[in-house]
Amino acid sequence: MQIFRRVLVVLLFLTLLPLTQQVSAATPDPTEQLKPVVDKVVSLLKDAEFRKKPVVEQSDVIVKIVAERFDFREMSKRVMGKQWRTLNPEQKDQFVALFTKLLQYVYINQVDGYLDKKIEFTDQRIRRDRAEVKTLLVGADKRIPVSYIMLLEKDNWMAYDIVVEGVSLIRNYMEQISTVLRDEKFPGLIKMLENKITKLEAGEKEE
Amino acid sequence: MRRIFHAVLVSLCLLGNCSLLYAADGEVDFLDDAFYEEAPEENAVRDPFEGINRVVFTFNDYAFIWVLNPLANGYSKLLPSDIRGAIANVFYNLQEPMRFINSLLQVRFSDAGTLLTRFTVNTIGGVGGLGDPASELGFEKTEATFCQTLDNWGVPDGIFLMVPVMGPTTLRDISGRVVDRFSLSPIYYNWAAGWEESVGIYMGKEVNNLSLHLGEYEAMKKMSFDPYIAVRDGFYQLRRQRWQNSMSSSDAVVEPLE
């Protein structure tokens, strides 16, 4: 009986193997999917008219474009690490909403420094359902490597991390969050996120 | 001398009985979920002096905003970026012999060859290191510090430290830096008449480097809700990445002693 089961497993595996290869042959190209979204955002942010709008409005437009290629829920899940499972559904939603907002403002703020730079898509690598799309921010006197780490969800590559000069954004937030959770638990974290977002919304400079 | 060295090594081992969470031995692959799953609180960075470190961090923050940054800002307006780049090159070139020795200590012979060639080519062809013609010839920059040598020999990282002005480091790394600094003294600090000038040279180097990276620290601070932790993690991540890059180009990697 056991041998029969083993043979069955092997047979099943053999029949599925060509299937998986077929799937991978038909996978869409991550760079091709990501590039239009990034280009769109950059051209919007270079538009002087658009930049005159309040930050909150800018962010609403941008999040709609970006959500096409960025999986904010996956980001929030990863950034929480093991703590994710201890949260109840409402807490999860609350955290996802706040963290998404934080990332948007951070992104808009960061882009200011990128406006004089050109984005080059240099390389990509795919392993099963994961991909890394490598880009280079080319400025007057420096070049900053920025990688997008993506996950294949059905036919869509969705980014869940950005790696700037080898530093993973999600990993960096993960460390911060775990410290806050250790000291101040979940309510403290929510309060901290809200404070940071209000500051960024006001567009005020710290200190 | 040897005994002192041993004593330092042993004390480092004792103090630094810690996890090698971010050390160069574990290769980072962002496509691998393991990178995200190592829970920070489990094999956390050893930071028993977090309280003091945070105070130093606040001090550094003020020093940066009120002293270093304005200095570097003014300096960057004074000199065009290519000249600042050339100055950075000179400092970098002066440290090349130390990198050469460290690459030998780490049994990275082909890197040692590259480093020796770089130093010769850049000193002669690059007029004392102002330019970097060696890179154009295909001898790329590679990092080899005494911190890496210690890591290679199995010395654990020890505790995390926030040092005034210098910034984030670990007990092992600061020891490594001190050794690198002293091994440079014959060529480097003999120029200086006394410690005041040494400090002057050091600050000059730091301000020059900072002028090439203006705005990066503010950007980082702006996006994090706990900048201290962000800087600490950024330090470990950057170092791991840098070492990984320099190690992957080497021909022999010595297994760290367990």
TrEMBL record, chain A:
Stated name of the protein: ABC transporter substrate-binding protein
InterPro entries (alphabetical): MlaC/ttg2D (IPR008869), Tgt2/MlaC_sf (IPR042245)
Record key words, sorted: Signal
Organism: Candidatus Electrothrix aestuarii
PANTHER family, per database record: INTERMEMBRANE PHOSPHOLIPID TRANSPORT SYSTEM BINDING PROTEIN MLAC
Signal peptide positions (record): 1-25
Gene3D superfamilies: Tgt2/MlaC
Domain of life assignment: Bacteria
UniProtKB/TrEMBL annotation, chain B:
InterPro entries: MlaA
Pfam families in alphabetical order: MlaA (PF04333)
Keywords: Lipoprotein, Signal
Range of residues in the leader sequence: 1-23
Any GO BP annotation: intermembrane phospholipid transfer
Family: Belongs to the MlaA family.
Record-given protein name: VacJ family lipoprotein
Organism in which the protein naturally occurs: Candidatus Electrothrix aestuarii
